[in-house]
Write a structure and sequence with these properties.
Elements (H helix, E strand, L loop, with lengths): L6 H14 L4 E5 L5 E3 L2 E2 L6 H7 L7 E4 L4 E4 L5 H7 L4 H8 L4 E2 L1 H14 L2 E4 L15 H12 L4 E4 L1 H9 L3 H23 L7 H14 L10 E4 L19 E7 L2 E2 L2 E2 L2 E7 L4 H20 L6 H18 L11 H4 L5 E3 L19 E4 L2 E4 L4 E4 L2 E5 L4 E3 L2
Parallel strand pairs: 1-7, 5-6, 7-8
Antiparallel strand pairs: 1-4, 2-3, 4-5, 9-10, 10-13, 11-12, 14-15, 15-18, 16-17, 18-19
The structure holds manganese (II) ion (MN).
């Protein structure tokens, strides 16, 4: 498949990062393969922060760039890798990344020694340790740091996560087109399911058909395991039990996304299967009202905190209307609405982001309010992907 983002995009990203850190040697490592079984790896997935600055989807590469130099370091390949995986294609690496210096290990070590003797100030991206990720697959920066320390023990290494996050939050026109396409494909795919809702009895049937629709429309498939939750199941925020029942005359919650040329969408719909009660319709309408007001509220200068606070205020009002809370029970809103209303969207579904900065034009975020009433077996969420524009916002669809 021909890549839609070319060397000029990655080059521009390198320049944007160097504008933030002009005195740094920026060194990023790509992901490695992860073994799945005796003689198989998991499908390779590049580190998105690495990819954003060079566009290369190969394992074990290192990217080095500063105001005065840029090069790619190739991994050592043993003869079995050369036979089974093929030689690394230098010409392709140059064409994709726009970087012409492609060095093997020994040359790279010499080059880094020279560079560090003049300027030992290195910047890289170091991920926070997350308690809920049990198996650490993102340890490449640790390997990179020990590699660099072997070359120069007293090197200083700064974490450039914040700057990288701020760059990735603001999308280029081409990135916006890709996310828009991913969103459109997802919305269409859900709409096709909706046209034949009565035929489904299990979530697996819906999941398979959604996947077929997404692939037929040119996406690369799911950007996360979809949430397909019927009736009471929809009150569980990240419901993911496979082969669950699709109940007649209940609401069905679908939270689905796909990748289009590496860029993600994230869409939620709550739809009636057959006839639902007046109460279910009221909750559905309440969440839709909140979502519309939130999307109207978005404009450059607003903070993510502002959006969260406004969403809680709006949901509180609806919970009062629904006679679930009284007007003195604001502190109980989170019981019926326990998740955040927004996140940045891009290469990652929950994109690499710095939520302390305010909205600016060309950010893409999701707006996903919900109301969950476990005792009544009603869960409703609506989510759309939103572009921040100069004057306000635009739904990507
Ligand atoms: Mn989401």
């Amino acid at each position: 498949m021909e890549a839609l983002l070319k060397a000029d995009f990655f080059e521009k990203n390198r320049h944007r990062l160097l504008d933030l850190y002009p005195d740094h040697i920026i060194i990023l490592s790509g992901n490695s393969h992860v073994q799945k079984s005796l003689d198989q790896n998991y499908p390779f997935h590049q580190d998105n922060n690495f990819w954003y600055f060079c566009g290369l989807d190969l394992a074990d590469l290192i990217l080095v760039f500063s105001k005065t130099t840029q090069f790619i370091i190739l991994p050592k390949q043993n003869k079995y890798q050369q036979i089974f995986d093929g030689f690394l294609d230098k010409e392709q690496i140059q064409r994709v990344s726009g970087i012409f210096d492609v060095l093997d290990q020994s040359k790279a070590v010499e080059r880094l020694k020279q560079i560090f003797s003049k300027n030992p100030k290195v910047g890289t991206v170091i991920y926070p340790k997350l308690k809920y990720l049990t198996r650490l697959n993102q340890q490449n920066h640790l390997t990179l740091i020990s590699y660099l320390k072997r070359i120069k023990p007293d090197i200083s290494i700064n974490n450039l996560s914040q700057g990288v996050a701020r760059l990735r939050m603001v999308k280029s026109p081409k990135e916006i087109k890709l996310i828009n396409k991913a969103s459109k494909i997802t919305i269409d795919s859900i709409a096709k399911i909706e046209q034949n809702l009565q035929k489904y009895v299990s979530s697996d049937q819906i999941s398979k058909d959604l996947r077929i629709n997404l692939l037929k429309d040119g996406s690369d498939g799911y950007s996360f395991d979809p949430i397909i939750a019927s009736g009471r199941d929809s009150t569980i925020i990240h419901f993911n039990k496979s082969n669950s029942d699709i109940l007649k005359n209940k609401l069905l919650l679908l939270d689905v996304g796909c990748f289009y040329h590496k860029y993600a969408s994230d869409i939620s719909r709550t739809i009636p299967v057959g006839r639902v009660t007046k109460r279910e319709k009221e909750v559905q309408a309440a969440v839709l009202r909140v979502q519309a007001q939130l999307i109207n509220f978005l404009e450059p200068g607003k903070s993510f905190k502002d959006i969260e606070a406004f969403s809680r205020k709006l949901i509180f009002r609806e919970l009062i209307n629904l006679k679930i809370l009284t007007n003195k029970q604001f502190s109980l809103v989170n019981k019926y609405y326990p998740h955040a209303v927004t996140h940045s969207l891009g290469l990652d579904v929950h994109d690499f982001a710095d939520y302390s900065i305010n909205l600016t034009p060309n950010m893409v975020i999701t707006i996903e309010p919900g109301i969950y009433l476990p005792t009544e077996g009603i869960g409703v969420r609506f989510e759309d992907d939103i572009l921040i524009t100069k004057k306000g916002s635009k739904i990507l669809r």
